[in-house]
Amino acid sequence: MKNQTRPSGISSLGYVPWGTHFCQFYRDKKDLLDILIPYFRAGLKNNELCLWVCSEPLDAGEARKALARAVPGFPSYVKRGQVEILPYTEWYLKGGRFNSRRVLRSWVNKVNQALDLGFEGMRLSGNTFWLERKDWKQFTDYEEEINGVISRFNMIALCTYAIDRCGVDEVIDVINNHQSTLIRRGGAWTVVENSSYKQTQEELRQTERRFREVYEKSPIGIELYDSDGKLVEANPSCLEIFGVSSVDEVRGFRLFKDPNLSPEVRKRLRSGESVRYEAPFDFEKVKKHGLYRTKKSGIIYLDVLITPLGARAKSGHEGYLVQVQDITEREQARLARMEAEKVLHQAYADLEKRVKERTAGLARANRELKKEIARRKRLQAEAVESGKIFEGLFSSIITPLALLDREFNFIRVNEAYARASQLPVSEFPGRNHFDLFPNEENQSIFKNVVRTRQAYQVQAKPFTYSGHPEWGVTYWDWSLSPILNENGEVRFLVLSLNDVSEEARAQERLRQNEQLLRNVLDVLPIGVWTIDGQGRIIHGNPAGREIWGGARYVGLEKFGEYKGWWLDSGKPIAPGEWAGARAIQKGETSINEEIEIETFDGKRKIIRNSAIPIRNARNEVTSAVIVNQDITEEVRLQRQIRQQQKMEALGTLAGGIAHDFNNLLMPIIINAEIELLKTEAGSSTAHSLQLIVEAARRGKELVNQIVTYARQKEQERRPVEVAKLVREALKFLRASVPENIQIRESLVFGPVTCQADPTQIYQVVMNLCHNAAYSMRETGGIMDVSLIPFELPADPATERLGLKPGSYVRLSVRDTGEGMSQEIIERVFDPFFTTKKPGEGTGLGLSVALGIVKSSGGAITVTSQPGKGSTFHVYLPRIEAGAESCSMANEAVPRGKERILFIDDEDIQVRTATSMLEFLGYRVVGMTNPEDALKEFKSHPDDFDLVMTDQNMPRLTGEKLATEILKIRPGIPVILCTGYSELVNEETARALGIREFVMKPLSLQEMASTIRQVLEA
Asked: Could you list the residue ranges forming a coiled coil in this record (predicted)?
């Protein structure tokens, strides 16, 4: 795919690269057209095939008409086949049901069709309004899978989701499956980036860079083949072995068409086995079949390991990893040595036989010398013949041989010895060995052989020719054997040589490679272990020992000493379930199993665990390699990000609820208060109106609680009346607890006060109560919540809590649920530990609650038994000071006569505010269009004493409207109102020159007081 960017057509998004997959949350048809019209207009303009799959609330006909109005020359685009607008039934539900595989294939076919027709690529959009809840899981899996498809093609995809049909979990699923999200905030479209996607991309780039460096510098030839057996990549060492200049010359070469690959190897590879073998490789076969161009010829010997990569259900393997070493020199040296030893052995055997025969003949001749002269002559002739045979054998044998006297003078040497010494044969007779080849160590060895009459032999002994230092160091296997006379004294010495320089150098290179591998393992940030066939550790690198806090050199029978739990289920890992045990016992390969372990120094860590069995030539498992990667911090960050994303999504929804709900409450509060002021005090009507006002204010408080909980913003600690806070939490909780769970509260009467952050204490109560409800979700039960003053005495129990003796508030949450074992109780406050199913909890609730309570100077205890429920006690230090009062004294409503310009995009807000302000005596101009209001102010800037404007309005926000008004008439008092806003607060408003920033809903008293305060400042 070309690495280029394309104009998205969406101003807040700008340019995006091919492979972009993003989404939009919309409320109505207008939201869809706001984004999709400029999106497809940009695609048509830039020569892209545009595919628009429609669903409610915007059908294909409406979409076609809207795009035709917005794009000049639209019919010509249709005629050339550049744009297709389809209903969802002809794409997603073709055939009457949703099939993710069919849809994925259709996208790929369509983008290939676009490229064949000469388009740059494809731009698509699909509306998910048709999606039923039962299809949600399959569709989100499809969204994850389509990421991999889009990233490989010239494609840009925009998925649209109706926000009203999505709950919190659905919102989070959508955001997680897309690179970015378009959300309307304050009348404008904003882009929310997927932070985890960016982080993952960066980590992948770093990992690829590190492994690419190892790959390029490896002394071992490495090839990668795809699932069809076609060569994809080869490193420099591999190209050197096969005499190829560039990987481009062999890319696409088919592994299974290599004539040097035996049928047995092919069969084992296709069955999924890893295969290692040593075999000759004939370059003439390569040239004969025209497989690729190579600079090499003849035959070399290779050590090859081929490993199938991954496994797919129907299509075999994902590819093959081939590792190659050139062992030609080692193999040639081995074959030559074997041949020489074979010939020498045969020569010695023949020589011994001839000597015995000759000796026997001479003895018989001596006994019959006088009687059988003729026979003696015949035997002498045979001896001459034997000498000739020995002479021929000595001269022609390929093993270097020399015959020396006991003073180390050469008697004779064969041709092989002369060639090895690089001197003619005639140069040796009569000369002393150590005159030609001076070496004090060897001379001492020769003397010892003469003295002890014992043969000497040595392997791969280094030797340097003193007369030719440029020849360098050579290595020899040599032996020195004495030949004794009839008195048992050494008469001759036989020196036998074998040049093993190439093999010795090959062994040295092998040793260096092994040392290099060991050095690499020592600096790798991941743990690498080698175990033998009994499961005992042979080698472990420093990173592995650091991960485990040491090492245990035990066999399979003691694998119970390793403590671990499966991360997905939390179940303990049995001794035979460890990846290393399965590799040794069953020959299994395990890749990236995520588990939690207890290290040998008592720490808890989360690791990725892999194991690969090592097999011998008979395919028997002889050992295994185990790889550990410490991902504790990675998992912690992932879970933290997931929790943060949930809270961000919940905060976004809570903000929308707050804005809309507060706008609804304001007319109720103000109109009820106006009528209350007009009504006779003490009447039934006044009583009813007072109830309306109180209920509306209660709704305001409830909205504030929702926003506070969703935002999780820490506040300054202050005196908190805990009983009141617990009552508020229980009111909020009852709406979400199933009917089969009864909540019983027993809270102390009168004030019990603590110094704390009320938001955090509220969170502690909610966490404990939610956990209690979860434990009774299936069978139902009773949740008892109690709060009492409590005195902790000076005794060991108080010391174990880590608290000082004194006055405390004790909050108790007791349930009749399933209870916990002692093992779970010991871990219940650990971060990320949870007994809930995947997706039902992060394991952060109780650890966060413990942190809050400890930071407030308190403690938490838990008691539980399986089947008998659980009880959590929270102890918080009690103070004497009273909590802050939230009540306000009744004050007279201030009035005025000034002229006010009031702007809000909702008609009910304008009518309510106008009625209230006129009731207070002001002259009011109320408007719902901010642009018209700005024109009105420009025409009559001096006709107004005060401007009041809402913040969240389409086309022109209150913040921008106030800025324009202050440019026209600097210093005019401006009050900015909002039901909820993340874009502006009191500090930023005052920086713009706005006199007052107020949150809806306002009461009549608050509104009247604020206006007078601003006008009289």
From this structure: 321-382
CATH code assigned at 748: 3.30.565.10
Does 227 share its domain with 313?
A: yes
pLDDT 10s digits, 312-325: 434 456 788 999 98
C-alpha to C-alpha distance for 663 and 656, rounded to whole angstroms:
11
* Of residues 421, 406, 490, the one with CA closest to residue 454: 490
Number of domains in the chain: 6
Lowest mean pLDDT, pick from 85-94, 233-242, 333-342: 333-342
Q: In whole angstroms, what separates CA 245 from the centre of its chain?
A: 36
Residues 315 and 206 in one domain: yes
> Which contacts (CB < 8 Å, 24+ apart) does range 671-679 have?
671/912, 671/915, 671/916, 672/696, 673/1003, 673/1004, 673/1005, 674/915, 674/916, 674/919, 674/1004, 677/893, 677/919, 677/1004
Q: Would the CA dihedral through 868, 869, 874, 880 be positive or negative? A: negative
Prediction pTM value: 0.40
Identify the domain boundary among 150, 167, 192.
192
CB 887 within 8 A of CB 721: no
Concatenated DSSP letters for 558-587?
GGGGSEEEETTT-PBPPGGGSHHHHHHHH-
Q: Is residue 32 domain-shared with residue 165, that is, in the same domain?
A: yes
Percentages helix, strand, coil for the chain (3-state, rounded to 5) are: 45, 25, 30
pLDDT for residue 291 is more than 60: yes
Q: Are 876 and 856 in contact (CB under 8 A)?
A: yes
**pLDDT grade for 642, boundaries at 50, 70 and 90:** confident
Whether residue 659 lies inside any domain: the answer is no
* Strands in 215-332 per DSSP E: 221-226, 231-234, 275-282, 299-309, 319-326
pLDDT of residue 352: 66
User: Whole domain around residue 217: which residue ranges?
Assistant: 202-326
